[in-house]
What we know:
This protein is mostly beta strands. It is built from no helices and 6 strands.
Amino acid sequence: MSLIYEGIKEVQIIQWFVEPEARVEQFDKLCEVQSDKAAAEITSRFDGVIKKLHYEAEDMAQVGKVG
């Protein structure tokens, strides 16, 4: 998960807006997450193709790590 807010260590994936093999552009919405402090939508930092979703909806993800 990309860095979202300073001090947040993990988030729960609420929903995905993309699927593997989807083409995305910079700033497209990827997923919605929830932490103990805030809810946020994570956007793409790059143009490209989604190869794999490393987490399922409802999973807890460590911020800054790939599953």
